[in-house]
Amino acid sequence: MREYIFKFRFVFLLLVASSAKVSAQSFKFLIPDQAIVQYAGSIGYFSGGVGYELFGNKKGNLDLLYGFVPGSKGGVLNIATAKFGYKPWTIKLKEWGKIYPFNPAIFATYTFHKELSFKFPSGQYAHDYYYWSEALRPHLAFSSEIELDAKKLLKNTGIRAIGLYIEANTNDFYLINYLQNTSALTVTDIFQLGIGMRVKF
Amino acid sequence: MRIFLLFLLCAAFAGCNHFEFSPNQTFDRISLKDVNATNLKRLGDGANDDTVTFVLTGDSQKSRDETVKFCKAVNAIKGIDFVVLAGDITEFGVLKEMLWISRTLEDLHAPYVAVIGNHDETARGKETFLHMFGELNYSFVYGGIKFVCHDSNSREYNFNGQVPNIPWLKNELKPSPGIKGFVGISHVPVNSEDFDSKLIKDYTTTFAQTPGFLASLNAHTHNYDLFYPDDSGIPYVITSAMANKEFLVVQIVNNKISFERVYF
User: Potential cystine with B117: which of B88, B130, B153, B166 (Cβ 3.0-4.6 Å)?
Assistant: First the structure.
């Protein structure tokens, strides 16, 4: 049965691919809406990637980023990030821009390093010896963004707007530490900052 | 105005050390370095101290609030020469946890040293510990007693037969002038399943054959215990975890060791 479905899908894909016009339409959603660069923010010394605007109202955002931490900055680390954010509020600034004052986001990072495993090896440890993953980290974040309208400033470049944002994030490790020690640790201890720029096409 | 405020906010944040590159970075711009060496320098050699008194604690892990109380309790005791944190300083082996715990421990009047625990060896903890505290196997002499601190977290090395490092221990436990007694300090006790079973005999024999070997001090199990794995008469003592609000005061006078359980 599974094989049959697989074959069916394959045929379906062939059909889609055979019509250039249809494929151009179907795969348009793969073209990103934004290019992103970010400094710090727990996903690399510097990171870069693409962003997709989600939903009809475009208030959702999916970012896919790759970050790097060099040895001189406590690495060497390679980090892949998938971030889902939402912009519930917008403040209009005359003609030239907008402010998204408070945008919650969740993101997951996967850090590539020989000392970091997705799962602790089962031969070495009993099932519940360590209960977390070293390489995969869930994060919670909040950001503020100012968006500058680029249509007038940068004519004929195809750039719609430029967004500058600052983001505070924490992760499961820090949250567990904080929730069990609310007098020795403060919220500012566990939230870490990053700044970035989105170029919107 | 709003942009100005945002800019001001950025500038304020930029002033502090909150721009993190990764939870897995082994150091950052202002993280501490060589804490053990710095504190041991402060401790001195205690050449004129005939009563060596120190605190043994361990497994601070997620117990930061308790660590604040611990510092107050230790500071209230007179005559404490130093404090030993016998491993599992962190839960997840990350830099921030090590920084947070040392920020609290800086309130101690007496200098402290840290010994590596199994949790501290997860993720990039070993490298982070090396950078921030120092060597995983090290020793120091105070009041004529040599304290041999070592890594006994065998499971973290998948029981490769190298941890604890017996040849290193044998070398450290050689008699030398000016040293009256020896104390072994490590995280995982010899009777734990996390200790390399192939090395138990060699380990206890090494201690038993060392003239003036006073005790083996450990943590890891989170509960106080005193046991004798062989007939050498050497006590193996386990301190309670920070979370249990209990620590040990260890005193050595005339090469006689005694232990007192203190609750806080």
Answer: B88
**Complex ipTM value:** 0.87
CATH no., domain A31-200: 2.40.160
CB A39 within 8 A of CB A45: yes
* Confidence band, pLDDT 50/70/90 cuts, at residue A156: confident
Confidence (pLDDT) at A15: 47
Q: How far is CA B2 from CA A39, A90, A101, A119, B6, in A?
A: 22, 13, 10, 46, 6
Percent of chain A with pLDDT over 90: 62
pLDDT digits (tens, 9 = 90+) for A112-139: 999 999 999 888 888 889 989 999 999 9
CA distance B118 to B164: 12
Return the axis-axis angle of helices A172-179 and B95-105, rounded to nearest 10°: 30
d(CA A147, CA A150): 9
Count how many residues are written for chain B.
264
Kindly tell me if the per-residue pLDDT of B16 is higher than 70: no
Q: Residues of A numbered 71-110 whose beta carbons fall under 8 angstroms of chain B's beta carbons: which are they? A: 73-75, 77, 79, 91, 93, 99, 109
Give the separation between CA B161 and CA B203, rounded to whole angstroms.
11
Comparing C-alpha atoms, which of B140, B70, B139 is closest to residue B106?
Answer: B70
How many CB atoms neighbour CB B226 within 10 A?
10
Residue type, A23: S
Top residue of A65, A181, A185 to mutate, by most chain B CBs within 10 Å, is A181
Query: Which sequence spans correspond to the domains of chain B?
Result: 53-263
Contact: A185, B6; criterion CB under 8 Å? no
**What's the alpha-carbon Rg for chain B, to the nearest Å?**
20
Facing residue for B100 by CB, picked from A40, A121, A189: A189
Domain extents in chain A: 31-200
pTM: 0.88
Rounded to an integer, the average pLDDT of B123-135 is 95
Q: Is the pLDDT of residue A185 over 80?
A: yes
> B53-263 is classed in which CATH architecture?
4-Layer Sandwich (3.60)
Q: For the segment A21-50, what is each residue's pLDDT rounded down to a tens digit?
A: 445 566 777 889 999 999 999 999 999 999
Tell me the C-alpha distance between B264 and B262, whole Å.
7
Q: Is it the case that residue A9 has pLDDT exceeding 80?
A: no
